[in-house]
Design a protein that fits this description.
Elements lengths: L5 E7 L5 H11 L7 H11 L14 H6 L6 E6 L4 E6 L7 H8 L4 E7 L6 H12 L4 E7 L8 H17 L6 E4 L23 H5 L14 E9 L8 E9 L1 E3 L3 E5 L3 E9 L8 E3 L3 E6 L10 E4 L6 E12 L10 E6 L2 E15 L4 E3 L9 E14 L10 E6 L2 E11 L11 H8 L4 E5 L2 H14 L3 E3 L9 H9 L3 E5 L6 H5 L5 E3 L2 H5 L1 H10 L6
Parallel strand pairs: 1-3, 1-4, 4-5, 5-6, 22-24, 22-25, 23-24
Antiparallel strand pairs: 2-3, 7-8, 7-14, 8-13, 9-12, 10-11, 10-14, 11-13, 15-19, 15-21, 16-17, 16-20, 17-18, 17-19, 20-21
Length: 533
């Protein structure tokens, strides 16, 4: 069984000292590679720079020169109780989208606030972002206590202010710790500088975080990445591949693909360059073959029969945090990514708009940069997902525009009974085909055939139906018109009163004189506004 490392994210306002605290934690617990600390100190001496523990993980040159963490850095760290993956998330306001990516897999967070600056806008934004990512386990470090002479009053003031903010977004922190990353105060051991503090150190709090139920014990979920077909040397396998998000899959299990609902049974587990496996669990990239081949597409969510099913819906409510320079607007189209599924997305309604720095509700029909909101969205096709409380791995999404992540969030509720509203409209079909959907009644078959040929030559979406009685087959005719077609029928076989009374689109009658000349017939269609070709 694969041992899972506990993912924890460090977040906070720029220059509040996250990276310094992580570097100090690694140094004090002997978690650094041999020679790493001395190498950084030598580098600083050679370049006449003061040594900073942040340099231990801020590896990028531009990060060290600008003094800000630009991308998320992953650091492996262990206490006596468990192994961790520490994610150092950016604090600078322009790099919040990187934080969304970095924090998206975390189960707990350490939020850092500088004692000399106090609670800042980004302190609140980061707290709110963590809440909508479903991260409720939080410890708050009040850092740089050395700059306020280890004042208990300053610490208590920040604790009170930020506790009230977190309470409003449904988070109860495990605790607040007064620390100094520079001097190593209350990082891994108690300090005489804060005799008034009787709580736990950061190191001790890390072991209080509760791991979620082991992913392998949760319902099986795997977003389909791709399907591979092999033909060399008589190999006819069709391998359905992806990374297991949660649960365990075994040979012989019956699986169902969502949202299509197609079922089959696992014939074999396939993995690259490993011994043969009869099962695979959360965290593994693998594939499987089926006893009965089915047609499935990238982005479908594979589940096991007999276990709780995911939700599937094209319309849903979601909590979203917006990062784009241009507001999230109902006038624009976007793309949504849930796992490997990707489709178009449209904002239908903003039901609640929040200023994340003050948590004040505002009115508006769009979401501005760094604002959060609850919205109704509609995707271009049904998506499959779990709610965040059911499965964090399959309950989050990101919104993409112009190939950039512009926002992210969690799905709060599927609205599967709601009809799709942004289907292809009659106007859109008219622009595509160059004409309105219309029934054209002509007096005889010769005229009908000639008209069909001439309209087809112009590029029209047209068909002559010799035996279509529109007065009796109203439903069939409506379906043809809904597709945007020019439907040609013989008027001698058709009474159109019933069809007109049903409230249908225009019916054009061509007389014998008009039908005798194709130029006249087409000109009448143009002057009446039916044909624009």
């Amino acid at each position: 069984m694969q041992t899972e490392k506990f993912p924890i994210v460090f977040a906070g306002h720029v220059d509040h000292g996250k990276s310094t605290i992580i570097g100090r934690l690694l140094s004090e617990t002997g978690s650094l590679p041999e020679g790493k600390l001395e190498a950084i100190k030598n580098y600083c001496r050679l370049n006449s720079r003061p040594f900073e523990y942040a340099f231990l993980i801020d590896a990028l040159k531009d990060e060290q020169s600008q003094g800000i963490t630009i991308d998320t850095a992953r650091v492996f760290f262990s206490t006596k109780k468990r192994d961790f993956v520490i994610i150092d998330a950016p604090g600078h306001i322009e790099f919040l989208k990187n934080m969304v990516t970095g924090a998206s897999r975390a189960e707990a967070a350490v939020l850092v606030i500088a004692a000399d600056e106090g609670v800042r806008e980004n302190s609140r934004r980061h707290g709110y972002m963590l809440s909508i990512l479903g991260i409720k386990q939080i410890v708050v470090l009040v850092n740089k206590m050395d700059l306020v002479e280890y004042s208990e009053d300053v610490f208590e003031k920040i604790k009170k202010e930020y506790s009230e903010f977190l309470s409003e977004i449904g988070i109860k922190p495990l605790g607040f710790v007064p620390v100094s990353g520079t001097n190593g105060v209350n990082i891994s051991a108690e300090s005489p500088f804060t005799p008034w503090y009787r709580g736990k150190t950061l190191y001790e709090f890390l072991d209080l975080f509760k791991a979620k139920e082991h992913s392998a014990k949760q319902p099986f979920r795997m977003f389909l990445q791709d399907i591979y077909r092999f033909t060399e040397n008589g190999d006819n396998r069709r391998i359905y591949a992806g990374t297991v998000s949660s649960g365990t899959l075994r040979e012989g299990d019956e699986v169902v693909f969502y949202p299509s609902g197609k079922k089959s049974r696992i014939l074999s587990i396939e993995s690259f360059n490993t011994p043969h496996k009869t099962s695979v669990e959360a965290g593994f990239a693998a594939g499987f073959t089926l006893t009965e081949q089915i047609y499935a597409t990238r982005g479908e969510l594979v589940s096991k029969v007999g276990e709780p099913s995911p939700h599937s819906a094209a319309r849903f409510t979601a909590a979203v945090f917006w990062l784009g320079s241009e507001p999230l607007s109902p006038e624009r189209s976007y793309f949504i990514k849930v796992g490997t599924a990707r489709t178009t997305l449209k904002l239908i309604e903003v039901t609640k708009l929040l200023d994340t720095s003050s948590l004040e509700s505002k009115k508006g029909d769009r979401v501005g940069k760094f604002e959060a909101a609850e919205c109704v969205f509609e995707a271009g096709k049904p998506l499959s997902f779990d709610l965040i409380d059911e499965n964090q791995e399959t309950g989050r999404f990101v919104i993409v525009s112009d190939y950039e992540i512009r926002g992210g969030g969690i799905i709060l509720k599927p609205l599967s009974d709601a009809p799709l509203t942004h289907e292809i409209t009659p106007d859109e079909r008219e622009r595509r085909f160059g004409h309105k959907a219309t029934v054209i009644a002509v007096p005889d078959e010769r005229s009908a055939i000639e008209l069909e040929k001439n309209l087809f030559a112009l590029g029209a979406f047209v068909c002559y139906f010799p035996d279509l009685d529109i007065s009796r087959k109203v439903h069939e005719t409506e379906l043809l018109l809904k597709s945007g077609m020019l439907v040609i029928v013989k008027s001698e076989n058709n009474r159109t009163d019933n069809f007109k009374n049903a409230g249908n689109p225009l019916i054009m009658h061509l007389s014998e004189a008009e039908s005798a000349s194709m130029e006249s017939a087409i000109e009448k269609l143009r002057t009446s506004g039916i044909l624009s070709l």
